[in-house]
Amino acid sequence: xxxxxxxxxxxxxxxxxxxxxAASAQDKLPTVLITGASRGIxxxxxxxxxxxxxxxxxxxxxxxxxxxxxxxxxxxxxVRPETLDVTDLGQIDTLAAKxxxxxxxxxxxxxxxxxxxxxxxxxxxxxxxxxxxxxxNVLGPLKIxxxxxxxxxxxxxxKLINISSTEGSLGSISRRPDYRNYFYRASKAxxxxxxxxxxxxxxxxxxxxLLLSPxxxxxxxxxxxxxxxxxxxxxxxxxxxxxxxxxxxxxxGMFFNQRGEPGIW
Length: 265
Hints:
- About 5% of the residues have low confidence.
- The chain has a single domain, classed as NAD(P)-binding Rossmann-like Domain (Rossmann fold, 3-Layer(aba) Sandwich).
- It is α/β, with parallel strands linked by helices and 265 residues long.
- It is globular, with a radius of gyration of 21 Å.
- Helix 2 links the parallel strand 1 and strand 2.
- Helix 2 crosses helix 9, helix 4 packs parallel to helix 5 and helix 5 packs parallel to helix 8.
- It is built from nine helices and seven strands.
């Protein structure tokens, strides 16, 4: 007859193994870091990855002030809000140091600004706004790519995704009659070029670098615009994630739309 104490020890040992296995499984879940995750496409992606069970490092300039992001973190314990202003190079270095030793499977450079249409009227261009757009949309993503290269290289998936736009496509814009969004268009064209270079720089580390246009999305970014071609944040995030999931090292340095179709440079 088995003694009660032996049964108890066996049960405890079994429970310990179960907990250990669960912890091990948790440790193996992929991690995604998303900049500008407090609203719009960034928040949509953070929500989708959280629902998938990934560890989500959701960065924003003031995450504590984002009710949506705080609610998402309260609902999903795998969501980790972090403060990050992508125009502050010191903050980028600080977060990279804080996350040292944390493999990041997918890093999504999403944070961006348009610069305001009122600041981009030829003859009345606001060059302070131009500086802000370039710092946010071009300098920030490049610094983040550099600061987090080793985090990405240490992961299983090794993907650096950059949210671009057909607004930065010379081929697309040259066919349009309008002349506007000088700053935003210039910033996305610059982002495309710099990330093609980054793709070459990190190829030997096995990192896949993609430029991804999320589509014409209804969000705070496009407030006041209503066109038939526009899609919801949820639809855009779902489609973008599918492209990211399927991305391969052979596609590194390429530009795609949210449906996975090659973009026009």
